[in-house]
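Re-run with default settings, no changes from the original entry. Doing this only to confirm the output is reproducible before filing.
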Amino acid sequence: MGEVVALPLPEPAPEARPVLVLDFGGQYSQLIARRVREARVFSELVSHRITADEVRRRNPLAVILSGGPASVYALGAPQMDPAIFELGIPTLGICYGMQLMARDLGGSVESTGSSEYGKAELAAFESELFRDLPSEQTVWMSHGDSVTAAPAGAQVVACSTSTPIAAFEDPERKLYGVQFHPEVVHTPHGQELLKNFLYNVAGAPSSWTPAAVIEEQVELIRAQVGKEQVICGLSGGVDSAVAALLVHKAVCDQLTCVFVDHGLLRANEAEQVVETFGGHFHVPLVHVDARERFLTRLIGVTDPEEKRKIIGEEFIRVFEEEARKLGDVRFLVQGTLYSDVIESGGAGDSTGAGVAATIKSHHNVGGLPADMQMELVEPLRMLFKDEVRRVGAELGLPERMVWRQPFPGPGLAIRIIGDVTVERLAILRAADAILQEEIRRADLYRDLWQSFAVLPAIKSVGVQGDERTYAYPIVIRAVTSEDAMTADWARLPYDVLETISNRIINEVPGVNRVALDLSSKPPATIEWE
């Protein structure tokens, strides 16, 4: 097998022309892409550095310019290729995107001293954007600068008390701008406005459904794999399970699944994965016990990025070894998601300009070795988690697997803050098992995006049985989210927290303190490492 690098993102089929969301660093950029998808229109998040030629080549149905934290006049503020405005593609600017559009097309943007942050009352006029929407409505504003003169040919179609030009449109040039954020839930009619733009202005079909995703990915997999043999790295989570189902649907008996027990799983998880998968999938499953080799490589490693890259590389080495046992296997299936790609700094355009800074290198993206010997098949690479779940349900995946909370590929290694040891793994497994049991007993499992225990490799003084203890703390982390790009800490009932804390301290040797993480994302991430 020759050296092959990871494949680029597949081009969408002609009937799935994308809506391109240009990211200017706004906190809601990913949310815009999600809202477009919720309207059943395919969207992609791309760098604001994308050129007009690149946009033309992608042949998008529409372009949306995101918000951003900068002033359009600030030194180093993100700019865009103004030739994009001349392509005749329906374009919607949101907040910073509206201001950039106004400035580049001859209007003006100023700091008026009338900043708006939070809810604002909007007066909307008859227009394409506000068709069939209330003339008076609440919107979410977040801006210091304002458009003080619309571009020539554009008509002002909305205003608020502090913002005389809260929206404008130029139907002849297909250019539209809104100062507020229609993508957030605090703008009650925001999704309807986006649908007006997508359906009425851009003529986008509402055809991007789970069934359409399955059909498209099956065709892409067949085209990529041909008659070659394929292995799938199965973790037992919904992502790898759905990826495996898609590949099985596409190439059937060419697929072998490989489950690697790296010693970093939760209590009884390896047994559950093998049992569950064996009962629902009619494909060969290879179970590899690689606990010793992973833990040996992690000895003394405390840096989280190094942990992820070591684990990512070791996974690939195991897969390569199993592939050699099976014969000439060229392809490796992974359950990589769009959120993995974005957080690893890899969702860019063909110029190589990524959308976002690297928040953390996901083991299946930034943690891949440069000399890996197989080509990747990643049918979920353009999907968010909730979209994967809908595809899984469409494929007939059992509900308990569809709604399994996310568990990271590096496992408990990134939930131990410090050196990973056998002792710390045992403590964390026991604490996490209690947490999961009580969350399910309280019927909260489906309400939470994730709930898990964290073990910082520090010790504190306690007292148990009238004696001094010097033991580890356990941190409870529970969040709500839609797609893991943003998250809020979950307000767990006090009685549930009390039960979890008491059980962990009394039942897990080596723990004398339980804490609760009250951080949202941003500024924190969901996982601690």
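The first helix runs from residue 29 to 38. The domain at 16-201 is CATH 3.40.50.880 (Rossmann fold).
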